[in-house]
Design a protein that fits this description.
By secondary structure, the protein is of the alpha+beta class. It has two helices and four strands.
Length: about 140
């Protein structure tokens, strides 16, 4: 029995040189933000841990040329994310995740983004609760 000649299509979710994808990530960024549906949550900011993974089209890697202008800068990403978290009260972690994803996808090189939002101080017997989403750039 012969094996058919199968060609695998590269996924935009993994770093893959065949399709020019690199991943830019931010791990365990802890911010204070006003979040929650309960009245007691609306009075004081809470600790939230954020994890981001951006699939970025790198194009011709020789054009990077060791120049920050040629890449998606994680400093700019974290600054934009902090700005979202400082933009007033949000009821749901789902809403915060969507807003963070939208900010990340404004960069044209970003093909997709995975965002995890975790509230850290909700239950004594759980280290965190939250949500993880993945969104794709509709322009690509």
């Amino acid at each position: 029995m012969s094996t058919p000649n199968v060609r695998l299509v590269p996924s935009p979710n993994i770093a893959d040189a065949r399709v020019g994808i690199r991943h830019v990530f931010v791990r365990d960024l802890v911010v204070m933000t006003s979040i929650g549906v309960h009245d007691f949550e609306k009075g004081a900011p809470q600790r939230v841990r954020l994890n981001l993974d951006l699939a970025v089209f790198e194009g011709d890697v020789s054009t990077v040329a060791d120049d920050i202008q040629n890449v998606v800068c994680y400093e700019e990403i974290t600054t934009a994310v902090r700005s979202v978290c400082d933009n007033g009260h949000t009821n749901l972690v789902e809403t915060l995740a969507e807003e963070i994803a939208a900010v990340c996808l404004t960069r044209t090189q970003v093909r997709s983004v995975r965002v995890r939002v975790e509230k850290l101080d909700v239950f004594e017997d759980a280290s965190s609760v939250g949500v993880e989403i993945e969104r794709f750039n509709p322009e690509v």
